[in-house]
Amino acid sequence: MRHLARAVCLTAIVVAALAGCHGLTTPSDAQSQARVFPLTITRTGGIAGFRDVLVVNGDGLVSVTRSGRQPRQCRLTAGVTQQLTAAVSSLAWPTATSATTHPAFPDDMVTTMTKPGVGPLRADDPQAGPAGRLVLELVNDINDGPAASLLCRPL
Questions:
Q1: In this structure, are residues 8 and 74 in contact, taking their beta carbons and an 8 Å threshold?
Q2: Where are the domains of the chain?
Q3: How far is CA 62 from the centre of its chain?
Q4: DSSP code, position 139
Q5: Which of 23, 24, 70, 148 could form a disulfide with 144 if both were Cys (CB 3.0 to 4.6 A apart)?
């Protein structure tokens, strides 16, 4: 049931992203991508001791490095790439201090995002808004493994 609800939610995200796009790349799209990518997403801590790094490129290619596992790559669906570009480029990046990107308690799981010249910013910070929620969803989706991922297809 959990997977069905998740699939419905992810489908709604992708449909909403595609509804506002016509699949064309304009100069402003290219400029947005240059300001956003590469986007580095890092997840550390938690009870399981995560140490994951995702590097997302403008073409949707994601390099995934997870502690104790072989590095791999996948490609975001077109709708997710467009939605991530829009969400991150519209984000008013606050100046993050080291205290805001460190664990608040011993088993705190911290997910941060960094784009060229800016960051890190915790994805669960309210200032991260829709970009933070999408980053958290992407990390969780990729964590489910290549066969289960709905947002990032194996190469």
A1: no
A2: 2-154
A3: 10
A4: H
A5: 148
Q: Count Cα atoms within 13 angstroms, Cβ side, for 27.
A: 0
Token pair in block for residue 129 = 């808004």
